[in-house]
Amino acid sequence: MGDYDPGMTSADTSAGLPADSSGEFFTDVPGPIRYEGPDSDNPLAFRWYDAGRMVGDRTMAEHLRFAVAYWHSFAADGADQFGSGTWDRPWLANDRDPMDAARSKMVVAFEFFEKLGAPYFCFHDLDIAPEGGTFAETCVDLDAMVDEAAGHMERTGVKLLWGTANLFSRPRFAAGAATNPDPELFARAAAQVRHCLDATHRLGGANYVLWGGREGYDTILNTDVGRELDQLGRFLNLVVEHKHTIGFEGTILIEPKPHEPTKHQYDHDSQTIAGFLRKYDLIDEVKLNIEVNHATLAGHDFVHEVTVAVDDGLLGSIDANRGDGRLGWDTDQFPTSVEEMSLAMHEILRGGGLGTGGVNFDAKMRRQSVDRIDLFHAHIGGMDVMARSLLVAHEMLTDGALTGVKADRYRGWDRRLGADIMAGRLSLVDLDEMVADHSLDPVPVSGRQEALENLVNRYVERVC
Ligand code: XUL
Ligand code: CO
Under 8 Å CB-to-CB from 151, ≥6 apart: which residues? Predict the structure, then answer.
């Protein structure tokens, strides 16, 4: 080997954790990531996300409201079922005092948010504060870390898109939280959500999310589905009541997912949740946080889930990640497909935008992405994909490229026959007689699928 220098590996760089926000962890990234335009070759610049650029009546920043997920980026270390952590996350070392570690983690997280130019972040209670020996101690620690977060938010101007309680990691939740067979566990989960919603309120959160991590079942042999759904309905009603009691003005969001970790989860997809919300009288109180990879796990395209939510007035926010076409689990990868996201953004714009919601990157790097700088590449790429998709969607919507085609396709329903059918003015007998009287025999009309696919591709190609 002689004097061959293999260079530094990321494992060699794990030292240097800053004591406070005057220090730096991401020393390879000097300052805020800037927009340089599509011709830029700078991997640490945005090529599409130009925060102040107007798209219709809003800036890109106002449309997209990007958020970094605390859990994937700072509370995880790249471990999977087959092996331990690979990422350089010194605050997660076992020998550290848990509160010191939580503070260091937060210093680094806010350095990242600021350098990336992310306006928002999202957290679970357990991402920002350690679990104490008792629930009371856990609450004290959470309050202290909420104080800490308030200080960082004030200092940096970064805001909270949403908070959520982790009701799935610990053994106590193995049989669910709200849907647990034991009402004492229901009470424990309710207490946790109470504290986390209060924390979210205190930090000015724009939304509060409930993902039913283990609200489902592993086997129907021991599960009373009807009872568990009633429990979940009651739990959600308690959350909504508390929101009003404390004056939280953000939106309560449910995040659909069909399975994983349980075999069947009750919050299966957008349509299932819409039915659930109607049944338990929550339809005017709760909206949806729709995640791309959850949609694909449910056997849907992301755009399907968004469309269902928009048409039912239930769109709240999105988690912009993706799965892998070959893998049937929740890989939580950063988005890379402008076509996929353009179709979803088109529906979001058609529905009037994300409102109090935003685009949260509930996405993690791959296990081999071991350098600190990889976290920037991941988010820059995701933000650019979403920004470019916003532009494509805006153009398509402004031109009525798809909305016009759909309006033409259903034109008959705006005319007399369609209107009479929908208004309930015609019975089956009336329709039968009409078909006979007029010898009706409608001919099929082309759906033009291939032409429309080409049209969408033309918008994707030409936007700049
Ligand atoms: C899990 C998932 C969660 C929620 C918040 O698949 O998406 O991270 O977004 O609990
Ligand atoms: Co999610």
Answer: none
Positions marked catalytic: 124, 127
Give dist(CA 390, CA 349) in Å, integer: 8
**Span 141-193, pLDDT tens digits:** 999 999 999 999 999 999 999 999 999 999 999 999 999 999 999 999 999 99
Which pair of structure tokens corresponds to residue 192? 């946790």
Instruction: Check: CB of residue 290 under 8 Å from CB of residue 302.
Output: yes
Q: What is the pLDDT of residue 148?
A: 98
How far, in Å, are 85, 86, 117, 171, 367 from residue 82 at the CA level?
10, 12, 34, 20, 11
Count other C-beta atoms under 10 Å from residue 174's C-beta: 13
CA distance 170 to 20: 30
Indicate the helix (H) or strand (E) that contains 69. Answer: strand 66-69
pTM to 2 decimals? Answer: 0.95
**pLDDT tens digits along 381-402:** 999 999 999 999 999 999 999 9
Q: Is 257 in the pocket of ligand 1 (CB under 6 A)?
A: yes
Could you tell me the distance, in angstroms and rounded to a whole number, from the CA of residue 319 to the centre of ligand 2? 5
Beta bridge partners of 45: 34
Single out the residue of 307, 222, 232, 325 nearest to residue 270, CA to CA. 307
The residues, any chain, with a CB within 8 Å of residue 53's CB and separated by 6 or more, are: 59, 60
CB 263 within 8 A of CB 275: no
Q: Which residue has the CA at smallest separation from atom 6 of ligand 1? A: 330
| Torsion (CA) 75, 32, 17, 157 in degrees, nearest 10 | -60
| CB of residue 319 inside a 6 A radius of ligand 1 | yes
* DSSP tag of 170: S
CA distance 360 to 162: 9
Reference 200, options 169, 165, 235; nearest CA is: 165
pLDDT for the residue numbered 14: 44
CA–CA dist 393, 153 (Å, integer)? 32
Helices within 33-134 (DSSP H only): 60-64, 70, 98-116, 125-128
Closest by CA to 373, choosing from 44, 47, 3, is 44
Query: Which of 319, 322, 334 for a ligand 1 pocket mutation test, highest count of atoms within 8 Å of Cβ?
Result: 319
- The domains of the chain, with CATH numbers, are 11-399 (3.20.20.150), 416-462 (no CATH)
